[in-house]
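Predict fold of TF-B3 domain-containing protein; 117 aa.
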Amino acid sequence: MKQIFKTDMDKHQERFSMPLNQIKKMEMEEVCRSESKSTEVKLVELGLEGGNVHQSTMRLRRWQINSTVSYVLTSNWNDVLDRNAGALKVDDIVQVYSFRRDRKLWLVLLKVRDADR
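Predicted 3D structure, encoded as tokens:
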């Protein structure tokens, strides 16, 4: 589970961060092993704008700044924000699940709670 921060909603940042200390168990080994510290993933959006389900291709990157490690969804994050304008807000709570399909990493983004609740 993760709270959406202002930087996640900032179109100039174009990324969704998941600090390592907020990740329980996620299949990140291929990101860690890759030379680029990045891998292609499929993102499934659930419970967002209009109740529609949408899939998109994103990059999952491992970022390390000093001793802090985060995993970051990039490359099409602004499309997710545009598609879900009004449904995702700062301080909303979302959950990210991971699974594999045909050996490829998939992530599911699910809105759990509005910020004003």
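The mean pLDDT is 83.
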